Each structure stands twice: as structure tokens, then as C-alpha cells.
């Protein structure tokens, strides 16, 4: 029976050199889960600039969708929908305070 440390040393773990930052890893994971590797750079940019809570809500919604043919398109639509809902909610809150 080998020790775990011996097994770890014998295995060659390759590092993904495309990911030097966390947002890059998240964008790559989004592209993989949505089956849209072609637009990987778009997901990386979104992971860098957009609110992560919005992206997570959209990701969960799309991954749980059984009928989605193009998950990337559905993801983008869901992100837009969530952003619009948040904007409307914030505008409503501002009006109520007046």
C-alpha cells in the first residue's frame, strides 16, 4: 500500500496555462458547462466585469433547463433579464423613497 504523498508525486498534474486569474477559470468553466467553447473569451470578459451573483443565477437557470438547445444564447438572455429586473427594482425603490 502506497502513501498518498507517493501517489501524488508519481502523478503528473498539468496546470492550465490559460488561467492565471480566478475570473479566467470561471469564464472557462462557464464556456464548458454551456457547451460554447467558441465564445470562451466572452465568458471570461463577463466573469471579469459582471456581478458574479447575476452570472451564477443565470448559470443555474440554464444548466437546470432540460429543453435548451443553445445554452449560450439562453444564458445571455437570462443575464439580460436579471439585470433588467434589478434595474427596475432599484428604480422602484428610489421612487418609493421620494
Give a structural overview.
With 98 residues, the protein is an all-alpha fold. It has one domain (18-97). It is built from five helices and no strands. Helix 4 (52-64) crosses helix 5 (71-97). It is elongated. The termini are far apart. The mean pLDDT is 88.
Can you give me a brief rundown of this structure?
This protein has 98 residues and is mostly helical. 71% of the residues lie in helices and 0% in strands.
Helix run count: 5
* C-alpha termini separation: 72 Å
Portion of residues in beta strands equals under 5%
Question: SSE string, helix = H, strand = E?
Answer: HHHHH
Count of individual beta strands: 0
Average per-residue pLDDT, rounded, comes to 88
Q: What is the gyration radius calculated from CA atoms? A: 19 Å
Shape: elongated
**Low-confidence segments, ≥5 residues, pLDDT <50?**
none
Helix content: over 70%
Largest sheet: none
Q: Give the domain tally.
A: 1
Derived from helix and strand composition plus strand pairing, the structural class reads mainly alpha
SSE topology sketch:
Elements: H1 4-10, H2 22-34, H3 40-49, H4 52-64, H5 71-97
Which tags fit this structure?
71% helix, mainly alpha, single chain, 5 helices, 98 residues, 0% strand
